[in-house]
UniProtKB/TrEMBL annotation:
<keyword id="KW-1133">Transmembrane helix</keyword>
<feature type="transmembrane region" description="Helical">
    <location>
        <begin position="6"/>
        <end position="28"/>
    </location>
</feature>
<protein>
    <submittedName>
        <fullName>Flagellar biosynthesis/type III secretory pathway M-ring protein FliF/YscJ</fullName>
    </submittedName>
</protein>
<keyword id="KW-0966">Cell projection</keyword>
<keyword id="KW-0282">Flagellum</keyword>
<feature type="region of interest" description="Disordered">
    <location>
        <begin position="43"/>
        <end position="68"/>
    </location>
</feature>
<keyword id="KW-0472">Membrane</keyword>
<keyword id="KW-0969">Cilium</keyword>
<keyword id="KW-0812">Transmembrane</keyword>
Length: 68
């Protein structure tokens, strides 16, 4: 067996494992990024709704106060 055959076989043996590993890494990275963006969007919406509730409660209390 020649040394060139050894390295060629070694390369062809490792290629599928490396490719599957890269695909796995890319899929997980995509999932984590999507989750992070979803959590950020949810936090923005929660903040907006909280501010809306506070302003609605503030205007309701202002209407109940006695002007005298």
């Amino acid at each position: 067996m020649k040394m060139d055959d050894f390295w060629t076989n070694a390369l062809w043996s490792l290629t599928p494992t490396v490719l599957v590993g890269l695909v796995f890494w890319f899929v997980l990275r995509s999932i984590f990024r999507a989750d992070r963006r979803e959590r950020e969007a949810y936090a923005r919406e929660e903040k907006r709704q909280r501010a809306q509730r506070v302003s609605a409660a503030g205007s309701a209390q202002a209407g109940e106060q006695d002007p005298s």
